[in-house]
């Protein structure tokens, strides 16, 4: 060992697993998961759905955003074991067959991506955000009126603030979302 200390200790415990049925993009997947496994890792490593990206792995960048029962979540912070019977939609499930989701088409039309790394999370977050606004959920910048939510640039920026873009394509992202919101 050339004078280096060799430290030994107890062996790592075997993982605890759970059987569940995961519903992703309309498909049912009976699966056995390690109870510590995140949804992001399940999607990417087990189901081959690599749209959601592992950016920060701390829930700060939004690159891993997916929809869970219609609401946006950071899949790097969501344990797969908690999702038995819940509906997950990743960016791969947004399109309707060969027809793009309106947000996907608007992102293309407005050049709302540059490197594309954040785009899947931006798209899923935008879908969830539009549903929240349609339901009348206020944000930190929503005026206190009974007129509903007006998705102007400030409102869209606030609602999308959990999704970062390293390339700085925010102007085009906001324009694409604004087009679909109208």
UniProtKB/TrEMBL annotation:
| Keywords tagged on the record | 2Fe-2S, Iron, Iron-sulfur, Metal-binding, Oxidoreductase
Q: In which pathway does it act?
A: Alkaloid degradation; nicotine degradation
* GO molecular function term, any single one: oxidoreductase activity, acting on the aldehyde or oxo group of donors
Keyword Iron listed:
yes
PROSITE patterns associated with the record: 2FE2S_FER_1, 2FE2S_FER_2
Cite the 2Fe-2S ferredoxin-type domain residue spans from the record: 18-94
Q: Which Pfam families match?
A: Fer2, Fer2_2
In Swiss-Prot or TrEMBL terms, this protein is called: Xanthine dehydrogenase YagT iron-sulfur-binding subunit
The answer to whether UniProt assigns keyword Lipid metabolism to this entry is: no
Its transmembrane ranges are none
Top-level division of the source organism's lineage: Bacteria
């Amino acid at each position: 060992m050339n004078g280096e200390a060799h430290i030994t200790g107890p062996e790592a415990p075997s993982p605890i697993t759970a059987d569940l049925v995961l519903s992703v993009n309309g498909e049912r997947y009976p699966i056995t998961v390690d109870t510590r496994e995140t949804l992001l890792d399940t999607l990417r490593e087990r189901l081959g759905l690599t749209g959601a990206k592992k950016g920060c792995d701390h829930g700060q960048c939004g690159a891993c955003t997916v929809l869970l029962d219609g609401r946006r979540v950071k899949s790097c912070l969501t344990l797969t074991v908690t999702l038995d019977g819940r509906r997950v939609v990743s960016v791969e499930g947004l399109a309707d067959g060969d027809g793009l989701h309106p947000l996907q088409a608007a992102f293309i039309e407005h050049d709302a991506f540059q490197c594309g790394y954040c785009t899947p999370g931006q798209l899923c977050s935008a879908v969830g955000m539009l549903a929240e606004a349609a339901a009348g959920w206020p944000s930190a910048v929503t005026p206190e009126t009974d007129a509903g939510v007006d998705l102007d640039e400030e409102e869209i920026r606030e609602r999308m603030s959990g999704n970062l873009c390293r390339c700085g394509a925010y102007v085009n992202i906001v324009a694409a979302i604004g087009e679909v919101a109208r």
